[in-house]
Each structure stands twice: as structure tokens, then as C-alpha cells.
Amino acid sequence: MTVREELERQEHRRLNPLAAFSDTSKGRPILDLPRENDVRTCYQRDADRIVHSKAFRRLMHKTQVFLQPEGDHYRTRMTHTLEVSRIARTITRALALNEDLAEAIALGHDLGHTPFGHAGEAALSACLGKPFCHNEQSLRVVDVLENDGAGLNLTHEVRMGILGHTGDYIPETLEGQIVRRADRIAYVNHDIDDAIRAGILSGRDIPGHIVDVLGQTYRERIDTLVCDCILTSREAGRICLTDQVEQALMELRSFMFERVYRNPAAKGEETKAKDMLKRLYEHYYAHPETLPDDFQPQLSFDGMERTVCDYIAGMTDKYAVDKFTEIFTPAGWRVRG
Questions:
Q1: How many angstroms separate the CA atoms of 216 and 203, rounded?
Q2: Distances (CA, A) of 140 to 47, 71, 160
Q3: What are the residues facing 63 on neighbouring strands?
Q4: CA 270/CA 282 separation, integer angstroms
Q5: What is the count of structural domains for the chain?
Q6: What is the pLDDT of residues 85-114, one digit of tens each?
Q7: Is residue 317 part of a domain?
Q8: What is the pLDDT of residues 103-154, one digit of tens each?
Q9: What pTM did the predictor assign?
């Protein structure tokens, strides 16, 4: 018996019958049996493939909420991803579900995010004339764009969990549904923390009736939400919160949209970021020969619009600024580091 087979047997002994077991996965888009016979389950392999991908490394240089914040302690898309992973694993372990699957989904859920956070998403939506959805782009990254166009060949359960972490589609696995919950728990609360650090909010600004339910501090709110999700889901047999906590979380999210996500003081530079990406899109659309060599073959089968979109969506904040400067700023005016 291989190590992998023993791990799969252990899953059946210790996990909830509602868990997504590794040996009953619906499999990968391309059959990969010769490589499955090792020391890892299929979901462990997926997590490793994601962590070793180029798209994952780029997350450390992509905006979460605040564009180019002054200070080292603001979240990036990478730190957000790690926080989602930890919250998801805590809930999954407590419910005796498959931690490896939850971790893989969490690590991959934001691989398709644009530079400059949701401002970049809005910019590409305007360029395309239709919604650019980062969850769909994340799936495209792992299916098509990574590994020189071969994709990562992940399991069905991880792929659908990535797609369903936001939007209308709800993942079929409980682990995927947990990541969907963990994503919201993470971003609402750490964005409050960053907004307080930036001087845009104070803890006293959070409405009292929300504080009464969720708690005053970052630590208290995370603890309330995670514990409520575990205890309520255990009783219900599905992933959920109590009505009171669910309502408080939704009201807290609405509060954040009003006070932070749409606040000119917090998002005032976003207009410039959107314009920058729009001009980059227009440039590459008009001059596809200036796209990098590894994107040139894609033009013939995906077309101009899709190829340019993929290139810009994959940029980090700094790379986008550097390319904009290179293309649109006269050489003599560029700031030299």
C-alpha cells in the first residue's frame, strides 16, 4: 500500500461522511494516473501546484484595498489569501471535513485578480464591455494560463471551489462553501483593520448593534464568526451562520462599502489606476506585436481581446505602473531609482 493510499484510508476513518474524500474525486481534466501514485492525495498535490505557480507568487504585489499604502502592515492579495486559508482550515477541521481540499481552494481563489484590486476589475470590465469576474479569471489561470498554457490540471472539486468562492455559482462540496464563507469573513474584517490603520475609520465608527453581536475588535469579530459557523453548521449539517450573526455580517459589509470601499479618501487614486489600465489595454490592442513573446501564440486561438485581457489581468501593480511609464512617459522624464 502506498503512502497516498494509506492517507486516503485515514480520511474515511476520521472524516465526516459529508466530506469530499480524495479517492472519490471527480478527477482532473486530463487523466494523470501515473503521477498519482506518490505520497500525496490529489488535493495535497493541487495545493502544491498552486503554491508553486507564477500566478501565486504575483499575489504578493497585488493590491487588496489600499493602493500603494505607506507602511508594511497593510494586506496584499497574498496575505488575504493566507488569512482565508487559515480561517477555512479552522472551520473545516472542526467539522471533520477535508482540510487539504479547503486549503487548495483557498490558495487558488484569487489567482485571477487584476492589479489595483477591484479597480482593475472595473477597468477591464469597461474595456471589454462586459463584466470581468475575477473568480472566472482565477479558473482560467489554473485551467489555461499557467504552466506555459498547459494549465495546472487541478481536480474538479478544487476548480469548482475556486469558481464558486464568489458569484452565483455555489460549490457542490462543503469545503468549497466554507472557503466562500471564509473569504467574506476575512476581507470584511481585515479591511476594517487596514482602514483603521489608514485613519479612515476608528473602532468607534462601527455601528453599536453590529458590535453587540460580532464584537468590538478584529480578534473578537473573527472569533465570533468562525465559532458561530462551526457550531451552527455542525447542528444544521450544512455551512451556515445563525440568522443574527449572518445579518450582522451583511450589515458590516454594507457599512464597509459605504465608509471604505466607496470612500473617496480611501479610493481617490483608483480613477488614475483605472485610466492607466484602460490606456494599457488600448495600446496592446492596437499594437499586439508589443505583447511578450509567450503571449504571441495565444493571439491566433484566443483573439486580441482575450489575450490582452489575460496579459493585463496577470500584471502586478508595480509591473503595470512600469509598463505604463515605459510606453507613455518620455524617457527623459522618467524617475530613475
A1: 7
A2: 17, 33, 11
A3: 76
A4: 18
A5: 1
A6: 999 999 999 999 999 999 999 999 999 999
A7: no
A8: 999 999 999 999 998 899 999 999 999 999 999 999 999 999 999 999 999 9
A9: 0.94
